[in-house]
Amino acid sequence: MNDNASRVTRAWVLHPDIKSDPDRRLADHALAEAMALAQALPELELVGGEIVPLKSVRAGMLFGSGKIAEIGQALEDQHIELVLVDGPVTPVQQRNLEKAWGVKLLDRTGLILEIFSDRAATREGVLQVEMAALSYQRTRLVRAWTHLERQRGGLGFVGGPGETQIEADRRAIDDQLTRLRRQLDKVVKTRALHRAARAKVPYPIVALVGYTNAGKSTLFNRLTGAEVMAKDMLFATLDPTMRRVQLPDGPEVILSDTVGFISDLPTELVAAFRATLEEVLAADVICHVRDISHPETEEQAQDVREIMASLGVEEDRPSFEVWNKLDLMPGDAADAARARADRDDHVFAISALTGEGIEALLAAVTEKVQGRKRLVDLSLGFADGKKRAWLFAHELVEQERQTDDGFEITVRWTAQQEAQYARL
Ligand SMILES: Nc1nc2c(ncn2[C@@H]2O[C@H](COP(=O)(O)OP(=O)(O)OP(=O)(O)O)[C@@H](O)[C@H]2O)c(=O)[nH]1
Ligand SMILES: [Mg+2]
C-alpha cells in the first residue's frame, strides 16, 4: 500500500517511436516534451526516460517480448514504480505491462488528466477535469479512476472485473457524469449572468492562446501587471484569468490568459473544457502566442490551429501570431524573425521577458479592436463621381480639397472598406 503522500514515486518515461505511425514526431523532441509533462506532476521523482524504437505496435503488450524483458530489468534495477508511456496504451496492454513489470502505468492521456486534476483550482475547472477523467475511464473500465496518491499498489488490478461488473461500473459512471454535467451547467449559468452584467460595459476581449509553455502567462503579467503563475512547467495555467487593460492610445480591453494546448490533447479534455474555452475563443481578437525559439515551433503552431478549428473558431477571426522568446534565439535567426514580422501584418516578434516588440503588438491590437481605421489620402478625377459619392455615403471623408483636375480626399476607413472601395 502506498498511502504515504509525502513519499515520492520513482517514475520512468518511455516514448514509443513507431515507424509505421504517419504522424510520427521527431523522437528526441517528443521524449523531451514527455519528460517535461512528467515533471509537471507533483510528488514524482523522474528518474529518466528513453526512446523505444518500434516497427509496429503489438496488440497485447505494445512492445516485443525481448524489449519487455530488457526494459523490465532496467526498471527493476532502478526501483521504478510508475512508467509513463508517451502515447496511447490500450487497457489490455496496460494490464499486461503492469503485470510484466510490476509497476503502475499511465499513458499520455492519463498523464495529462493527472496534471489537469492537480491544477484545477476553480469549481468549474474541477468539474471539467472530473468529467474528462470519467469519460476516459468509461472507455477503459479496467480499474477505477483514482488519483495517484490514492491508488493501490501496481499489482492490485490484475485479473480485471467481470462483464456484469463492467456493465454496473459503466452505469455508475454515466450517472456520475450526468450529475457532474448538471453541476457544471449551474456554474456556467452563474458565470454567464456575471458576464451579461459585465457586457453592459462592452469591453472588447483579447484572448491569449497557444501551446503550453509558450509564454502566455508571462505576456499576460507584463501587460496587466498581474502575477499569474508563469513557470517553466507544462500546464502552469488551467483556469482562464481575465483582467482589464488600458491600451495605450486606445480603449480598455479585457485580456484573458488560458490553458495551454498540447499535441494529442485528449479529446475528453477538449470536450470538457469546451464551455470555458468557447467563451474565451469568442474574443474580439485572438493572439496566438508561440515559442518561436522552440525547435518544433511549427508543429506546435499547427497543433494549436487544429485544436482551435475543432473548437469551431473560424479561420477569418481577427487574430495575430505573437512570436515570443525572441531573446532566446541566436542573433541572425532573431533578425530573420523580426524581418518576417515586419513584412506580415499578422505577425509580431516579441520577448515577453525583455519587453521587445510589445509596443507594436499593442498598437496593432488597438487598431484591431477599433475596427482598424487608417487615414489615407486619395486623389480623384472629376470622372470619379461615383466613387466620391460612395465615400460620402459611407461617412468616411475627413477632409476634401478641390484641385484643378479633381479632388484630394482624406478618408479614415477599415481594411474592409478599403477593399470594397477598390472593387468599385
Ligand atoms: N527567455 C524567455 N523566456 C520566456 C519568455 N516568455 C516566457 N518565458 C518563460 O517560459 C516559461 C513558460 O512561460 P509561461 O508564461 O508560464 O507559459 P504559458 O504559455 O503560460 O504556459 P502554460 O500556462 O503552461 O500553458 C517560463 O519559464 C517563462 O519565464 C521570453 O520572452 N523569453
Ligand atoms: Mg500559463
From TrEMBL:
InterPro entries, sorted? G_HFLX_dom, GTP-bd, GTP-bd_M, GTPase_HflX, GTPase_HflX_N, HflX_C
- Mind listing the GO molecular function terms for this protein? GTP binding; GTPase activity; metal ion binding; ribosome binding
Q: Which GO terms describe its cellular component?
A: cytoplasm
Q: Which UniProt keywords apply?
A: Cytoplasm, GTP-binding, Magnesium, Metal-binding, Nucleotide-binding
PROSITE patterns per UniProt: G_HFLX (PS51705)
User: Where would you say this protein principally sits, based on its record?
Assistant: cytoplasm
Show where the Hflx-type G domain sits. Answer: 204-373
Protein's cellular compartments: Cytoplasm
Pfam family for this entry, one: GTP-bdg_M
Its biological purpose is as follows: GTPase that associates with the 50S ribosomal subunit and may have a role during protein synthesis or ribosome biogenesis.
Q: How does it assemble?
A: Monomer. Associates with the 50S ribosomal subunit.
Q: Which HAMAP family match?
A: GTPase_HflX
Say which family it is in.
Belongs to the TRAFAC class OBG-HflX-like GTPase superfamily. HflX GTPase family.
Name it: GTPase HflX
* The species this protein was found in: Roseobacter insulae
The encoding gene: hflX
